[in-house]
Amino acid sequence: MAILGEILARAPVWVWALLVVLVAVGVAQARPRNASLAAVVALPATMIALSAYSVLSTFQPPAPALLAWLAGLALSVAGNRFIRYPRGAAYLPQTARFALKGSWLPLALILAIFIARFIVTAAVTRDPSLRGSQIFGEAAGLAYGVLGGQFLAGALSLWRMAAPRSPLQGA
């Protein structure tokens, strides 16, 4: 417990400010709203970029961790074929916007990514040799990929709703 207290106390103030902002963004996703394609892509693009940056900036060499990250993205996108997130969303062609039901899932994913990044950063700060650990890098990369991939999967689902369909594709 003393180690945890020390880690939390030594975290820079900006980390806690970032957490507040991330929670606010996640809570905003819980409200029903209408949003443009640009708006619904902004959060997934940001979270995917941050998870990729986490892999690339933490592990040396980054290739094994990056491959695990890509595998995590692919698993999330494939898994979303069954989960079908975001549920209850509809594309409104007359306004080119999406009607989205509120969901707490984005907040949960944001917090999971934050916690994973915090744990990995604390671990490599305490033991710098972990930066070169292939298994640690792959595990972290997979976690970042699966979590960030949920955002990608949701954005792809919405994009498919808005994509024009040819008469051969059907409704």
How would you sum up this structure in a few lines?
By secondary structure, the chain is mainly alpha-helical.
Structure notes:
This protein has 171 residues and is mainly alpha-helical. Helix content is 70%, strand content 6%. The chain is globular. A three-stranded antiparallel sheet has the order 1-3-2. It is built from six helices and three strands; from the N terminus they run H-H-E-H-H-E-E-H-H. It has one domain (2-162).
SSE layout:
Blueprint: H1 2-10, H2 13-28, E1 33-36, H3 37-58, H4 63-83, E2 90-92, E3 97-100, H5 105-126, H6 134-162
Antiparallel strand pairs: 1-3, 2-3
Strand content: 5-15%
User: Which radius of gyration do the C-alpha atoms yield?
Assistant: 18 Å
Q: Largest beta sheet, briefly?
A: 3 strands, antiparallel
Number of domain modules:
1
Order of helices and strands: HHEHHEEHH
Count, helices = 6
Query: What is the count of β-strands?
Result: 3
Structural class: mainly alpha
Quote the distance from N terminus to C terminus.
57 Å
User: Could you say which overall geometry the principal axes of the C-alpha atoms support?
Assistant: globular
Q: Helical proportion?
A: 55-70%
Mean pLDDT: 90
Strand order of the largest sheet: 1-3-2
Model regions low in confidence, pLDDT < 50 over at least 5 residues: none
